[in-house]
């Protein structure tokens, strides 16, 4: 089925709703209605989207500065300023990035994601995080990434779309288990742990279909056993190595999203 045929504009989709919060134009009425309902319950949601995106940029730059030149970015999103390959290739022009998303609208933008700088290489896989083995054995992945050298696995603002009954632990273990020593995992995850009971009640109503699973920092940490967490640890995305970001930093209850970078021993 083509990307066009798979497009369901009557239901809110995470990539399009995130695009709406970031101020983009690639969204439909259902995405905007869902985005507005969540914003009514959590007024900081647009700030959260912006801060999550800024975290992604800082984490990729940090890793490229450590010499990491291979990235597997699952849950890519609709292209936006500061895509992973742009940030990585600004530091290491030979950086190579494999993008993965399951949204047909992201697929329809794949050309923008595939426009690598001249020294690097990108690929785009139309695939689902819930089938990690299919991602790992995809021929386009091995054409771009050398899995015998360190890779940064990026799970940025995507794990909260994996329900507990879809085995997030098994998914992360399978992906991390395929990476060589010295690789990294970058993850961010929405949390409701800093919200008031009233806000949680409204957020739960906006999530009546249960498609979204917020997790606490402790629950995110439990998804990364055996990894060495990079300083400053698992913290709000607004706080992670944000010394050069606009000050003062937003409150953690407004951003409501934790981030972490961890290294495989
Ligand atoms: C909130 S956006 C995050 C985009 C980007 N990582 C960032 O942080 O700026 C989440 C993305 O994850 C994708 N996604 C959600 N569930 C997925 C799944 N099961 N497999 C692959 N992608 C998924 C959505 O389509 C969307 O593009």
Structure write-up:
The chain has helices spanning 3-6, 14-21, 29-41, 45-65, 84-91, 104-108, 110-114, 132-136, 139-144, 168-177, 197-206, 217-222, 252-255; strands at residues 70-74, 96-101, 121-126, 152-156, 184-190, 228-229, 235-236, 257-263. The chain has 265 residues and is α/β, with parallel strands linked by helices. The mean pLDDT is 95. Strands 1, 2, 3, 4, 5, 6, 7 and 8 form an eight-stranded mixed sheet that branches. The chain is built from 13 helices and eight strands. The longest helix is centred in the N-terminal third of the chain and has 21 residues, at 45-65. α4 runs parallel beside α5 (84-91). The termini are far apart. The structure holds S-adenosylmethionine. Residues 14-15, 18, 52-53, 56, 74-77, 100-103, 106, 128-130, 156-158, 161 line the site of S-adenosylmethionine.
